[in-house]
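Fold this sequence, please.
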Amino acid sequence: MYKLTIVVENKTSAYYFFELLSEMCQSEANAISIFEYKTIWTVDAYYGEWSQAEKAALWLCSISIYKLSSWVVEQIADQDWVVLSQTALPPVYAGRFTIHGSHDRTKIGRGQNRILIDAGEAFGTAHHPTTHGCLIAIDLLTRKQNFKNIMDIGTGSGVLALALRRTMPRANILATDLDARATKVAKNNALLNNSLSLFNGRLFFAIAQGLQDKAVRLAQPFNLIVANILAVTLTRMVCDIRLALRVRGSLILSGILIAQSNSVIACYKSHGFSLCKHIQIDGWSTLIMVRR
């Protein structure tokens, strides 16, 4: 087993690198953790091969908007690093939702808005500010409106789709990801949370590159779309998202650094969207918008 450790300057950049590593399909980490040491933040990612860890570090150096203070790859003793990273994560409380790992199952108990998600398999445990922000946005919107046809783009672990399922049990929900492993993990998480056969609505998981795939086109138009992906991808998808969303439909966008938020907002406003709310958590933005 090999551990890639990168040293960064603050919490925002730590979560930025965490998200990039989680999204990296070419060299997938077995587990990823964030640690704080006084004024220094580190991100640890665990790989089966030295070459995978080195490839991930070089990729980060080539694309990142933040500077890596330093990085190192070292060989470590074989352990179940997924389990170890899971047990270090406390429950997350976002709006009416409680997101927890299996190690906290007995402490948290069961409940309508309690969702079991274990870390390390696919992005989305709610500890990242982008996922946390989306959960708050879902909580706010679903208290005021009823949505019948919903799409979750870049579902990762499926946590947002499961939150939508909890609050909109009669809705049809399509959750997609371009990563086949993520969609498998998301479906397994739905089964663990008994979320595939509740009430009259349906929850589907599909592998899709965007909104042009057949499964997505057949399910359109949606009256709520949630997209927790990178800002550059959100900007590139604006026309497709507009076509897939009903007039007066709601949109939740995340995966956006606060420094990137004005350009994303301007892009969507120029394509007929209005900004309803801007949620900011630890350097990251979540936007609630509506199609005019």
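The mean pLDDT is 87. The two ends are 52 Å apart (CA to CA).
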